[in-house]
Design a protein that fits this description.
Elements (H helix, E strand, L loop, with lengths): L1 E8 L5 H10 L5 E4 L1 H9 L22 E7 L2 H18 L11 E8 L14 E2 L4 E5 L11 E5 L11 H13 L6 E5 L5 H9 L3 E6 L2 H13 L6 E5 L10 E7 L2 H11 L3 E13 L3 H10 L2 E9 L2 E8 L1
Parallel strand pairs: 6-7, 8-9, 8-11, 9-10, 11-12
Antiparallel strand pairs: 1-3, 1-4, 2-3, 5-6, 12-14, 13-14
Helix pairs in contact: 4-5, 7-8
């Protein structure tokens, strides 16, 4: 399908009046890029409990302030664009308004096929541990004899499983799962990668849980894709609210603050083996998280690190 991609270049002060114009026209779906917002974010970083700021945000440091939106390439879409062009021209002649001294409207025709699946170009088969390989469904891969391959189709809303926090969790699962014996509870399962990895490593049965219904659906689809529905059950739920399942191993790839909150409820869901694996933790926060886990009755078995991230394995004493 073809669209008109329109971009209004303006100043920081011009954003509010321009977005009001767009909303008055019924155009509520737009994106704003503003360098001043980036600088405010960085200046206020120490005022918030940030875990991580994506390096891609650095590109906003020098961006020319703009508002981007899309119209269907149709008679109605072109009519809306013509109306907006007229309104923009009128604003340009408000010589007393400095808010509009950089005002410019540019547009071009785009095909959604040009961008909706572009992200797939960068997702290739990746060996994330000694034995586990993650392979997108649209790629081919010839596995070695000692490799276990996870087929994954995460969609644009979920990670591909190649992030260090995932590989660290899988590394610990490889170490602590006793094949054909242990049960695993995957909390915050996302696209189901850790549950699938646990099944391939040899866990007897796995329960994957997430509070997000979309994650639950994506996990189910990926589990079916790997033909593991008989070993893995997926539920929409919250470990802290009414979940009755107990397992030998609980794995939670979340973020530091959530791991700390979750740790208070983990013990009640562990069986005799009582291994708790957690990740999504920046190295600078590992001591805080480790202390919180220990305060809940756990002994830290080990902390593994990759880049700026770490994962913890703990045992309930």
């Amino acid at each position: 399908m073809r669209y008109i991609e329109a971009k209004i270049y303006t100043t920081h002060e011009g954003i509010d009046p321009l977005t009001c114009i767009l909303m008055d026209m019924g155009l509520a779906g737009f994106a704003i890029e503003d360098a001043s917002d980036f600088h405010d974010l960085i200046n206020k970083k120490n005022s918030y409990d940030w875990d991580y700021i994506d390096e891609n945000l650095m590109q906003l440091a020098d961006v020319r302030t703009n508002i981007t939106f899309y119209l269907e390439e149709s008679e109605e879409g072109n009519r809306m664009l013509a109306i907006l062009r007229k309104k923009i021209d009128e604003l340009k002649f408000c010589t007393d308004e400095n808010d509009f001294n950089e005002l410019e409207l540019l547009w071009k025709s785009v095909d959604d096929s040009e961008w909706k699946d572009n992200w797939k170009e960068y997702f290739k088969p990746a060996k994330i541990t000694e034995h586990i390989v993650i392979k997108p469904t649209w790629e081919t891969y010839e596995a070695a004899a000692d490799e276990l391959v996870i087929e994954i189709d995460p969609g644009m809303a979920f990670g591909t499983g190649t992030h260090p926090t995932t590989s660290l969790c899988v590394q610990l699962l490889e170490k602590y799962i006793e094949p054909n014996k242990d049960t695993v509870l995957d909390v915050g399962c996302g696209s189901g990668i850790l549950s699938i990895a646990a099944a391939l490593i040899g866990a007897k049965d796995i329960l994957a849980v997430d509070i997000d219904p979309i994650a639950v659906q994506v996990s189910k689809e990926n589990i079916e894709l790997n033909q593991l529905s008989s070993k893995i059950k997926v539920l929409e739920g919250d470990l802290t609210k009414g979940l009755q399942k107990k397992a030998d191993i609980i794995v939670a790839n979340l973020m530091a603050d959530l791991v700390i909150i979750l740790s208070k409820d983990v013990a009640a869901h562990l069986k005799e083996k009582s291994i708790y694996i957690s990740s999504g933790i920046l190295i600078e926060k590992k001591e805080v998280v480790a202390s919180a886990i220990q305060a809940c009755g756990f002994h830290i078995l080990e902390i593994v690190e990759e880049g700026e991230w770490c994962a913890l394995a703990a045992h309930l004493e």
